[in-house]
């Protein structure tokens, strides 16, 4: 779980689907649900069809084909990535006929994120998004701390922090200043980071996490951290309790909705197990009957062989006796009688 929470693409995918849910007819889910679906995909514990349904909807939009379903999406997914990877000169994650659910977890996340990008390349995008303000589609950090780590909020109840290694900061800063013909600034001066370049982690899971972070920033000597505190205190802390209540309500609702499906899935698995056991039992009974029939056949053949051998012995004995009798008679006719 720690690894997947350090991948910026996961909240980015969830935010994309939340932002364009109505425009692109996508699914309604939160970041935690996406993580769970990714972690359980392709395992026996997978009780969610979230990934399959999400891929199908993204593919339908990318290809303008409403005939794509959970039964045939693998073919369309491989075909799209073959085309796009050739177009952009990227390595194709589907370098074999392996299905999506059997790919490494990291590769699945990269494919989903790429699908979101491909969806924005579709022909209908300009028409569908013409009434949306382009600035409202961009995500900016809420603020920074004294280490120049960026704090990102997408939606829901989580807050992410992106830490930038010092070497990366220096490299990016010097490259940008050289490109614009400016004299490189000192290391202490700040530079605007780009999302996805640093190391990510979740810093706020619970209401208490949000409150503790706001208090920490309020007492800071850093001007940037005090500015971040103002954003947290004014825009988020008043809404956080309501967001958590709404999250719990939706989780209860989804659990209730999933119960019949999970029960049905368990019943289906039990049914399959019973069918397998029944087939095995029938096969065992047939095998036992075959063994019994074979033994009976062998017994009959053995008895018949013994009977034949017995009859042969009787015939042999009778033939021997007959020969002895004939010999006796012959001896009696040739032998002279006593006077």
From TrEMBL:
Protein's UniProt name: Cat eye syndrome critical region protein 2
Biological-process GO terms, alphabetical: chromatin remodeling
GO-annotated cellular components: CERF complex
Stretches of the chain forming a coiled coil according to its record: none
Region ranges (Disordered): 170-194, 256-339
Biased amino acid composition, Polar residues: 319-332
PANTHER family (UniProt xref): CAT EYE SYNDROME CRITICAL REGION PROTEIN 2, CHROMATIN REMODELING REGULATOR CECR2
Composition bias, Basic and acidic residues: 256-306
Comp. bias regions, Basic residues: 170-183, 307-318
